[in-house]
TrEMBL record:
Protein's name in the database: GTPase HflX
InterPro entries linked: G_HFLX_dom (IPR030394), GTP-bd (IPR006073), GTP-bd_M (IPR032305), GTPase_HflX (IPR016496), GTPase_HflX_N (IPR025121), GTPase_HflX_N_sf (IPR042108), HflX_C (IPR045498), P-loop_NTPase (IPR027417)
Protein encoded by which gene: hflX
Any one GO molecular-function label of the UniProt entry: ribosome binding
SUPFAM superfamilies: P-loop containing nucleoside triphosphate hydrolases
Keyword line: Cytoplasm, GTP-binding, Magnesium, Metal-binding, Nucleotide-binding
Length: 444
């Protein structure tokens, strides 16, 4: 029942209140985009200012009357608040307006329900919706609130309400069990990639920053991409080959938003774990957005919440085609490591620079050199071929093998040890303690 939506948009009155506290502020422009993404038809935005929310209606009596008049004038079907309302505030406003009321969390849940396509995505959205509904369930039984307690006076309302709550709890437990299976499967896939030593790169960022468009041009995929909030909900993974890094698993993830409901973060933890266990995070930023710095801060907060704040990060400023005078470029830190890349995914500008930067960030411990091997060193040559480490091979006049090699240093050191060759031959600074440690690990 959660995924059936009307064909036409609903007439909606929007409410946005300005608060002096910075952490409670929301963006009315972003709210309007959320409403349109949900398929609603906004007819008027009612704004006001308060020092703090009213405990009963969230807004004052005067503003509530203004909202009531707007609902009557436009024959609105729903009133949308750009704030998180408590269950009691939501019920009180509904009773006063005689109209359906939805807060920011409920609006985002509705958008997620429309975007869910995979079985996992639908389970995650349904879980978040059910947990959101548990505290608002009484709203559906307000016509039975006149029933009194006591022997012989208890009506069916109390029993029905308790039954519904029990059914909700059972459904939530069932979904948790199903999602746990999904988490185990994802963990198994990640362990397989780690055993194969395939690095993973996750695209993260604020919603509508252009992650899916960038994902499509890098992987030749056909992930749904649109100029709307939360166009991507279900994660998509593709295996690609990056310069100087070899095979890489690239993941497109759900976009973040300021004050992302905690229930959504919990429900989508299995999906977001792709980001929390990635080798490298590519943080895609809408360079043309006036609030891009604030959006970066919001993404950082969510990454911290899911335990991904310590993972190496590459900032990608997208949509430079909307900024006159901006050209694709790589910005590096004092050590020459790529920090920022300026690109335009929709026009394909700077994608070669982005691939170069990702390759450099993933190949910090990559051994790239030309080896000259004697014919008797065929064991080493065969091991390098087994690891797909040889890019090119030729034979010189002396009959020696000339190999262009690219391989992670740790793998190369282990191959050398197995072949009976001291790592100091190719790593002059390789210490005897490191050699013994690697040997011990190899034996065990």
């Amino acid at each position: 029942m959660f995924f059936e939506r009307p064909d036409s948009g609903e007439i909606a009155v929007l409410v946005h209140i300005h608060f002096p506290d910075e952490k409670d502020r929301e963006d009315p422009g972003e709210f309007l985009e959320l409403v349109r993404s949900a398929g609603a038809d906004p007819v008027v935005l009612i704004e006001g200012s308060r020092s703090h929310p009213s405990p009963k209606y969230f807004v004052g009596d005067g503003k509530l009357e203004e909202i009531r008049q707007a609902v009557a004038e436009h024959e609105a079907e729903v009133v949308l608040f750009n704030h998180a309302l408590s269950p009691s505030q939501e019920r009180n406003v509904e009773q006063a307006l005689k109209c359906r009321v939805l807060d920011r969390t409920g609006l985002i849940l509705d958008i997620f329900a429309q975007r869910a396509r995979t079985h996992e995505g639908k389970l995650q959205v349904e879980l978040a919706q059910l947990e959101y509904m548990t505290t608002r369930l009484v709203r559906g039984w307000t016509h039975l609130e006149r029933q009194k307690g006591g022997i012989g006076l208890r009506g069916p309302g109390e029993t029905q309400l308790e039954t519904d709550r029990r059914l909700l709890r059972e459904r939530i437990r069932t979904i948790h069990k199903r999602l746990e299976k999904v988490r185990k499967q994802r963990d198994q896939n990640r362990r397989s990639r780690r055993r194969a030593e395939i690095p993973s790169v996750s695209l993260v960022g604020y919603t509508n920053a252009g992650k899916s468009t960038l994902f499509n041009v890098l992987t030749d995929a056909e992930v749904y991409a649109a100029d709307q909030l939360f166009a991507t909900l279900d994660p998509t993974l593709r295996r690609i080959v990056m310069p100087d890094a070899g095979p890489v698993v690239l993941a497109d993830t759900v976009g973040f938003i300021r004050h992302l409901p905690h229930k959504l973060v919990e429900a989508f933890r299995a999906t977001l774990q792709e980001a929390s266990e990635a080798t490298l995070l590519v943080h895609v930023i809408d360079a043309a957005d006036e609030a891009r710095d604030e959006n970066v801060e919001q993404v950082d907060l969510v990454l911290e919440e899911i335990g991904a704040d310590k993972i190496p990060r590459l900032l990608v400023y997208n949509k430079i085609d909307c900024l006159p005078g901006y050209e694709p470029r790589i910005e590096r830190d004092d050590q020459g490591v790529p920090e920022r890349v300026w690109v335009s995914a929709v026009n394909g500008l700077g994608l070669d620079l982005l691939q170069q930067a990702i390759g450099e960030r993933l190949s910090d411990d990559l051994f790239k050199d030309q080896l000259i091997l004697e014919p008797a060193e065929g064991r080493l040559r065969a091991a390098l071929y087994q690891h797909n480490a040889i890019l090119n091979e030729s034979v010189n006049e002396s009959g020696q093998f000339v190999l262009d090699v690219r391989i992670p240093e740790s793998d190369f050191i282990q191959i050398l040890c197995r072949s009976g060759i001291k790592p100091e031959r190719y790593f002059p600074n390789y210490g005897i303690e490191d050699f013994m440690l690697d040997s011990d690990l190899e034996v065990s």
